[in-house]
Structure formats: structure tokens, C-alpha cells
Protein 1
Amino acid sequence: MEQIQSFFDNNLATLHMPTIRTTDVVEILIIAFLIYHIMVWARNTRLWSLLRGVIVIAVFIILAALFQMSTILWIVQNVFGIAVIAIVVILQPELRKALEQLGNRNLFLGMLNIGDAGRGEGRFSDKTINEITRACVEMAKVRTGALIVIEQNNSLHEFVRTGIDVDAIVTSQLLINIFEHNTPLHDGAVLIRGDRIISATCYLPLSDNTDIGKELGTRHRAGVGVSEVTDSLTIIVSEETGKISIAYNGTLERAVDSDRLKERLRIIQDKPDEEKKKGFMGFKLRNEAKKL
């Protein structure tokens, strides 16, 4: 026992245990948080496939280093800088979307609940919800195609410029008249900010998501496309089937009824006073909005 005790005393005495400070723990948590969210983001983009290819190349480089293959290592050293630039160019859409999400003020305001004061009924009134829902249901009955984009925090100004200024109060009659066949404003998207229609005949970016069904046309692909680059909610009425769909955060919810549509609109309406009264229910609604 004395020999064992002596062994541990001699060896443990030479070990140096670093002092862990509170800031070190916080730093580890921040890095773990960032790595986790980067991996979650990469899982749903083309970067995931690219990472698997990079891992294969990294293993090949390690083997080259172990066996001292100088020519291969020289090529790697000279091509590395060009490869980084090529990756940035290839992943430009995904990197842009990630930076836009990082710059979204909801990231911090949602946690701190800042900026809700003075909004009254929220982003838009209950009357606007009823008018939009009524218009979509009526257009669906007669199979009138429609594309309605509702702005949240990300500005839709770059899309407003592609259309014709309207600046009118949201009413079901006006929305139905805009999308009526053979009218000057029926082609393109209508953009809504608050309780007003700000622009019509707007052009939207088309999504390149391969998961979107081939039976869906340009209108649905445009609705998903604008939801991928902004936090807007888009309502699509199909001209072929007469069904109502909702695009939000790059996902498409198909065949919704009027109650479901009102529910989604109330979530993004974001009434601050109501949420404070509901307590936990308000937090639940905000989380559900992120899952749309």
C-alpha cells in the first residue's frame, strides 16, 4: 500500500490541473451553442453534403501527411485558398439566408420582449384577418389564383419596387378584384404591411427546393421562395384545385381551411397585450410561429 501511495503521490504531484473560471464555462457554453445551431442549419442545406465530401478529403490529406506524400501536400497547400473562395461562391444563397436570420431582430427582441409597446392590436387588426380570410375563401370557391405576402419584421421593399403601388386599406372586395382574371393587377403577388395593401403585381424569387411537389406551379414556388429569404407569411390560392396553402419559413402547409388560416394569421399578428394576459400561452404561440 505504501508503494501504491508513493506512486500516486509522485505522479499526481507532477500533474497540473488548470484553474477553471466562470468565464471559461460561459465561453464553452457559447461555443457549444454556436456549433449546435450551425450543425442544425447545415443539416437542411447543401452544406451537409459538402461537409461529407470535405471529411473524405480531410481523411485523404491526413493519410498523405502520415506517409509523407510531399507532392499531394504541396497541391493541397496551394489549392486551399482557392477552395475556400469556391465554397463561399457555391454556398452564397445559404450563407446569405443564415446572415439574414442572424440579423433578424426577432432573435433578441423575442427573448427580451422588447418593441411590443404601442403596437395596440399587433401588426394588423382583427378586421384585416377577417378580410384576408374572407377573400381567400371566396377566391378558392371560384378557383381564382392568388398570392398574398404579409410582411413581418423583414422589409419587403426590394419586392415592392417590382410592383405597382396601391396603398389601400385591406378589404376582401379589393383583394378579390385585384386577382380577378384579365384585370391589370391580377398577375403577380400582393404585399400587405399592417392593415394596408402596399403593392400589387410584385415579382417574387422562386424556391429551388426539390421537396416541392412537381404538381405545384410557379405561384406556390414563389410563395415558398419569398418565405425562405424573409420572415413573411404567404397565402397561396390555387387556380387549378381551389385549395389554400400557407408558406412560412421555407415550408408549405397545403389545403388549409378558414379556421386554420385565421389561426396562422393571429399567431403572426402578435398582440402584445393579449400575450401578457395569457402568460405561458403567449410564449407557446411565439414558439408555434417559429414552427410554421
Note: Strands lie at 146-150, 164-169, 189-193, 196-202, 233-237, 244-248, 251-253.
Protein 2
Amino acid sequence: MKYFVAVAEELNFNRAAERLYITQPALSRQIQQLEEAIPAVLLERNSKRVALTDAGQAFYQQALNILAQLQHAADESRLLAEGRKGSLVIGIFGSSILDFIPRVLQAFGRTHPAVEISLHPMDKDAQIQALRERRLSIGFNRLVPNEPDIEQELVRREALMLALPAKHPLAARDSIELGEVLEEPFILYPRGVRKGLTTHVRRLFADYDATPRVVQEVTDVTTSIALVAGGLGLCVVPQSTVNLRLPGVEYRALRCRGKAEIELACLYRKGDSSPILRAFLDTVRQLGSQEATPAADNRQAS
């Protein structure tokens, strides 16, 4: 078809052969075989001129369409093979949507604009199940349990912060030691999630032989910060939460006897060789190494 299109556009076998980087006799044989295969006379030719027949004109238009479709199919296949086209379904949870994930999506979107991305809020158990059922490409969560069929990678470590009402006496400080607020009312999240931030906070209190005085347990960071703004209590949150600015809330660095930090991990199916997933993971790893939030000094001063 490409040979025929070249002749139809040049109306000269010699020029068409030069355009195709083949010899003129080889080109003539290809056109003859094409006409025999159809069968129809596509070109009128003599020693003086080459012209398209009516059948040749119709075939020329169809050939252009077919070659364009073939090129489109090749381009689509190449983009899919390179992970530059297709779809990516991402599970999200907690405060990471306030900071790290938007930056990953922005960076990935610049290099892979043809990939369609959908985000689905899910806790870690739901993410693991969705990965197993292939309803999810990748998930982001914290304190993810080890699963034999799920790969997980550390994305970054975040310092823990203390969210407190703006009028609280300790809001004037640059940092607050956990031992100073052991008796304060606390709002914990997320409720009902195994090995969640609540469990981590209770461990930090246990280092002081104390338990938090919980006044509310909520399921998401936005609700917890809204309750802090209402003066109902304090809340320990990852540093990315500081991007959630509500009137009446201040965030301060938290110091404690244990590690005042928490990990963010991405999780995906083991053995998943999807080019899009691999390209997305490259972006996650690059951004994670460049922009990981350094953990604050979390040791109690001696």
C-alpha cells in the first residue's frame, strides 16, 4: 500500500522509487502484484505518463485511511508498551492526599499526559483486597501489614505534628514535648483501621506509661482538624496535614521519647509488570528520594 500511495502521489515510477529508497523495477513488480491480487487496474501507464484509473483513485483514498489506521495502532501499541498511555487506578487514604500524592500526580502527568488516572479513597484492608481483585493498580497507606502477594515500598518518612487550638497556651511554642500534654483531651484517627495512626499514637503515650484521654475517634484527618478548630482537643497528625489550613488551628513540631514520625508506603501486586505501573513507580521513587520530609528531632532532651 505504501508503494502504491507513493506512485499515486508522484505519478512517476522513478520519483516514487527514489522516495521509497528502492529500485524502479522492484517498485513496478510490487504494483503489478497488487493489481493482480485485487484484481483491478489501478494505474494507466505508458512511456509518457502515469495516471490513476477510477479504481486506482478509490483504492488510493482507502489506502490512505488504512495506512493512517495502521500508524495509529502502532502509535497506540508503542505508547501502551512504554507505559505512556492507558489507565491507572490509585487507592488513597489519610493525609497523603494533602501533600505527596498531588505532587506525584503532577510530575507523572507532565511526562505521561495520555494516562487516565482515577483516585479512590480506601483504607488499607480495602486497598489490599482491591489489589488482589485487580480493581486497583497501586495504593498509598501507612503502617501496612506484610502480605505474601502484595509488594510494598517505603515512600517517605514524615514527622508527626501536634494540631492544637490557636488559643491554647502552648500554641506560642515552636515545638511541644508529648509529656507536657499527656492529660489533655485528644482526638484520634483513623477509627476502625488496624495498625493505624491511633495505634502509633498510643505507643508514643505508652513510653510515658500513659494512655491518651480520647474525647473523639474519627475516620479522617479533615474531621479531626475541624474538631481541633472547635476546641474539642488536640490531635497528632503527619506533617503533610499542615496543608489543611482551618481557622483556629495551629500545628507545632512534636517531641517525644519515641520516634515522632510515621511512614508512607505504596503497595501493589507482586509480579505486576504493567508498563504504566512501572513508569508511575519511577516517578514515586524519584519524588520520594528528592522531597521526603525530614523527620523532626523527636527525642526528649536529657
Note: Residues 154 and 265 are 4 Å apart (CA to CA).
Protein 3
Amino acid sequence: MDAKQANILYHDAAARSYDAKWSISFDQRCISYVRQRAERMLPRTHYARVLEIGCGTGFFILNLWQAGYVERAFACDISPGMLAACLESARLIGCDLDARAADAESLPYEDGSFDLVIGHAFLHHLPDPAAALREAHRVLARGGALLVAGEPTRKGDRMARVVGRLTSRAVRTAAEFAPKLRKPPPEGAASLTQDERILQDLEWDVDLHTFVPEETAAMARRAGFHSVRVETEELVSSVVGWAVRTLEAEVPPGALGARWGAFAYRTYLRLYDLDQRFLYRALPKDLFYNLLLYGEKA
């Protein structure tokens, strides 16, 4: 199975539970998250025609629309299941979204169609990220801009994986002394739904790349962009965040208590503030987990 087919199957299977798994919502919490990245990277606060490539369930484009940055919203994704979830969320918040099934490396739009092209955590799924950047450049109008966020850096991803493994071992050790932390053993493959089997089988086949900031900037310039800028975010907040996600995946539902979610989110916000206000000034960009890319079309 090639990478694109694996991504279609995986994300179709993930679509119904994706927002719950990643705490995606279309309320003030996620609007604030998206607005914060837009304020950091974009020179303007309003764009007429905005396309999101690899939109998933709509987290980035719909919350950016709610934040007032988007007049007319367009979205595409290679996964029909993700598109269906995105359109349903758009309907619920009242956004008249134009959505199409499309390959990021061959977009079904005319040259110069958009004032802003955005993407969130999609480049690392693509066999050819450079081709997607060239397509983004093609469909942008002159003077248009590109914003990509949520892409894993190479060092940040390695750190996250180490944290995940260590947290998993710690939880299993703790469960020897606190049985309520022990998840019931799986009932076997026969008990899994088709979607659960697909997610289990393809989990490690859909993340294809991590990124080095300087190399990513060079790739954007080769695609035709100028005024290219790469920033990163989340160091301590990422380490704690991945530990939290691993912990939540390892223990039975409800074992952490009703207040856990609010506590974890407040902790993330405080650590993110620490990262950006203090650590980002002193440490190399490539240590931070998430990469953000900005560029303009001349």
C-alpha cells in the first residue's frame, strides 16, 4: 500500500473520533489557540479568500474563520471521511465552507485563486512536501501568503517519542501498586471494529517526515516564496503534553478524575508561556516541537 492510500484509509477511520482524541473544539479555547498563532505569524488580520490544504476535521480553517481572519473559507483533504466531519462542524458554527476532496500535491484550483493558503499538521503526511508547497504557491494570488503550523521538528519529535516511552513504562510500573491505573487487557483482534483495526495497523505508516527549520525555509524558497520565516514553539509544554497524552492513553477512562482535563490544560498554558517568553530567547529553534512556516508570493 502506498503512503497516500494508507493516509486515506487511516484518516477515514479516524475521522469520527479524531476531535475527541485530540481535544479539538470550535469554542473559545481553540479559537484562542489559532488566533495566537495567526497573530504571531501573519502581517494582516483579514483575508478575503482562504484555502486550507489537508484540513482534517476543520480545526484550523474554521477557528481562524471564527477569529475573524477569513472572509470566504475553502478547504480540501485527501480523506473523504475527514471532509465530511469538517463540513458538519462548519454547518454547526454557521460557516459556508467550500470543501473538496483533493491531493495536496495536485490541487484542483486555478492559478491565483486565494489570498491566503494555510495548513496545520499536514505536510508530514505527504510523500512530497515540496510539491505541496509549489502547489500552494501556484494557487496564491500575487501578494498572497502561506501559513503552515503544527509540523513536527526532527529533534522535537525524537524527544516526544522518548518521553512517550518513559511515561508508558512509568504508568505500567505504577499500576503494579495502584491497580486502578491498569487498563483491562485487549480482548483480541476479533473484538476490534474495522476502523479500530485500520488505526492499529496503519498508525506508524502515515507520519512520513519531520522537519529541520533551516531546511524547511529553503524548501519554501525553492517553491517560489519570499519573505520566508520559520518559527518554532513548545519545548517544556511539549514534553509535559506528550507525557499527559501517553498517560491518558495508558489508564482506564475516568481513572484520572473529573478535574484532570482542566488541570492539564491550565498546566499546558503556563508551560507554553514559559517556553515562549523565556526559553525561546535562549535555546536553538530546532529543540522546540512544533514548526511554523510563513512565506509570500511576490
Note: The first strand starts at residue 47 and ends at 53.
Protein 4
Amino acid sequence: MAKRVGQKIKMTSIDELLGVPTITGCDEIEVARIHPFKDHPFKVLDDDKMHDLVESIMMNGVLVPVTVRPLEDGDYEMISGHRRLFAVNQIGLEKIPAIVKEYDDDEAVLAMVDSNLQREEILPSEKAFAYKMKYDAMRRKAGRPSKNNSSQFGRNFQTDIVLAEQVGESRGQLHRYLRLVELIPPILDLVDKKALALATAVEVSFLDHKIQAMLYDYMLENDICKTFQIFAVRDYLKEHDTISKMELIRILNENAPLNENNRFQKITLTKDKLREFFPVFYTKSQMENVLFKLLEDWKKENADTEG
């Protein structure tokens, strides 16, 4: 029988089209009500793996529910599933299957870190901040033992030993990662890109952020520093309250690796380049005299900034 004119037609929602599955033991929560975990240390990248996840959800729906905890305002905080939430937002789904857990702040941190450490690839910066968050949460829980955690957080509890065992790191390696949180973001990014060795980065982490910023500028122009160069800077700071940029450069240059490719041992100025700045009739000797005079003046001008 034909439909009456003006009869409302129910449109199929995108959730129905893409098939958000009903999963036992979980609720379907509005995506707009789920907020990222505060200071979430793991990056959500829009890379090839994310594209694969988006395609999978479009084909099959969200097969593994996310885990959230309720907030006081009625919304939710994501514990596990930031990548799935990103993918669902990309697709435009309004709801996502979620398991709701009643976690306090420290329990939420422990659950969030543990679930995300299962990822295949984890950057040094992600490990650093994740380990630090879990380390601090474990120490706080150790300070308030109860019948539920007395076996794990007892009187002789040593957070670093237990945490190292849980995350599969040696105690020394764990402490190296914990030091990375003291790096300024651009230098930590060099560690993630494997341009700066972890051991060197640990030594850099003991420098204050102002000096790290000067060091970063140096590395951009002169390649990455070596650990023994940082040792030299730290030795200088044992006897001085601070260091100027000129003094920092001097120490780094004097302690640069000794090899034939070291740019600080040999500086080449081509004849064509020099001719751009001198009259054509200037002799080699005259050009050298000018250059040394300019260098002498430069040294005098910067003498006051080195102290």
C-alpha cells in the first residue's frame, strides 16, 4: 500500500549503517561526553595504522569497548581507547561501546598506563611520562596502605623496583626514562627521533631549561652533542652558578670529538666566497689582515658577555 503524502520517513543513522555492535557488559556512551585522560602521555597519530583502524571500524564497528570512568559533571574520562575514540570521531559515530569503571585518581592513572603500555611501538617520551605518572601514583598509594594494597605496597615497598619489574625494564633503565621528563620538548623530540642518544639526553636533563634551550640552538647548527661534551658543561657548572651562551659554545667546541671531520678543527673559506666581500685588487695578505681585525673587534665586543 502506498504511503500517505507527508508521512515521516525514518532515516537510518550513521551508527546503524556502520553497525555499532552491542557488547555484553558495556554501555553505549555519547562520544561528545568522553574526554581525554588528563595529561595523557601517549600520542594519538593520524598515521597509516590509524587509517587501518578507521577502515576496520567502518567495516566491523568497534569490536573492543573503550574503558572510561565517570566524572562529577556526568561526563566521562577516557582510561583506555584514545585511538578508538579518535577513529570514531573521524568517522562521525555518535556513540561508542564503553565499560564504565569507578576509579579514583591514582587507580585511573595505573589503569591508563598499564593498558597503553601494551602498544607495539612506544616512544621514549611516552615511556618517560607514563612511567613518571605511574611511579608517582604508586608512591602515593604506598603512603596510604590498606587491606587492598598492603601486600603490594607494604612497609618495605620500593616503588622503582616494583615498577621496573612490572614494565619490564631494569631499575637503572627505569630511572633513565624518569629523567627524560626534565628535558625541554625540542630536545625530548630529538630522543624520539633517535637523533640524540638516551644516555646523552639523561645528562642533559640535569641542566636547567635555560641552558638546555641554548644547547638545543647549538645542536641545530653544529650537529648533536656527545655525552662527554655535556660532562664538560656540567663540570663547569660545579664551580659556576650559571653559564653564558658564549662560554657554553666554547666548552662544547673545545670538547668536540677529535677526528678529521670535526668542523671545529678546520674551517674552509673559499676564494669565491671571500671575493664577495673584498675589492678585486685586494691581496691575500690584505684580506687576512681585515679578517683578523674583525675577529679581534668581535672578541672585545663579546668579552663582557662571557662572564
Note: The chain is about 50% helix and 5% strand.
